[in-house]
Amino acid sequence: NAGVTQTPKFRILKIGQSMTLQCTQDMNHNYMYWYRQDPGMGLKLIYYSVGAGITDKGEVPNGYNVSRSTTEDFPLRLELAAPSQTSVYFCASSYPWGDTIYFGEGSWLTVV
Amino acid sequence: KNEVEQSPQNLTAQEGEFITINCSYSVGISALHWLQQHPGGGIVSLFMLSSGKKKHGRLIATINIQEKHSSLHITASHPRDSAVYICAVLYSGGGADGLTFGKGTHLIIQP
Questions:
Q1: What is the maximum alpha-carbon separation in chain B?
Q2: Cβ within 8 Å of residue B93, ≥6 positions away
Q3: What band does B94 get if pLDDT is binned at 50, 70 and 90?
Q4: Cβ <8 Å between A56 and B96
Q5: What is the pLDDT of residue A98?
Q6: Distance from CA of A14 to the nearest CA of B (A)
Q7: CA distance A46 to A62
Q8: For residue A15, what is the DSSP state?
Q9: Interface contact flag, B97 A59, Cβ < 8 Å
Q10: Mean pLDDT along residues B2-13
Q11: Collapsing DSSP states into helix, strand and coil, what is residue A85?
Q12: Could you please report the per-residue DSSP string of chain B?
């Protein structure tokens, strides 16, 4: 059981570039999430999905897109990267909202 | 948006000390999570509770629903307990917003 795997771990992007953060889980969880963590702040929800083919916006969705074609995979796409998107990104998964939540190792993204 | 407040923000203690980290929230919740984030960045779930008390090894988590307050205790603290401890709540009817996270308590245990 690998749990939640996200890649890449580190990435430097130039302003205006695009990239995709990959996330996969092998626990057959229906619920998957993308969070960002900024220094001194709590994690903020970007997008979430309650099952394959279903996605919805969280608190801070602007500048991001997601898709959920399978139960296992939940990639996060950054379009036209901006310095404000410099952050640490965490993918997570769980059964229903109130159950134990499992996090990936994080992806450190710098936009310059 | 309803907030989650943690205290203290930073805590430095000596090995062996009893540690308490507090979390308070503003309205009714369905569940409360305690998470641990190590310096490398990975986040691990410690507890999920909706009432009472849970214990795992040297860690104890309690919640008082009436007072809207939870505590995380560490007994016989050790340098390997050094980490950021994060409280997160699922507000009743949380829906699209899911979990609301506190800013974390940065704990350092000195040998």
A1: 44
A2: none
A3: low
A4: yes
A5: 60
A6: 24
A7: 8
A8: T
A9: yes
A10: 93
A11: helix
A12: ---EEEE-SEEEEETT--EEEEEEESS-EEEEEEEEE-TT--EEEEEEESSEEEEETTEEEEEETTTTEEEEEESS--GGG-EEEEEEEEETT-GGG-EEE---EEEEEE-
User: How does pLDDT run across B38-93, given as a tens digit for each residue?
Assistant: 887 789 999 999 899 999 999 999 999 999 999 999 999 999 999 999 999 987 76
CA distance B8 to A23: 33
Cα separation, B12 vs B108, in Å, equals 5
d(CA A25, CA A94): 10
**Residue A61 has which token pair?**
């969705």
Give the type of residue at B22. Answer: N
Ranges of chain A whose pLDDT falls below 70 = 1, 97-98
Q: What is the largest CA-CA distance in chain A?
A: 38
Which residues of B have a CB under 8 Å from any CB of A? 1, 4, 30-31, 33, 35, 40-45, 48, 50, 86, 88, 90, 94, 96-104
Given this model, what pLDDT does residue B97 score? 52
Query: At residue B96, does pLDDT exceed 50?
Result: no
Read off the tokens for B34.
Answer: 């305690």
DSSP for A93-110, written as a single string: EESSTTS-EEE---EEEE
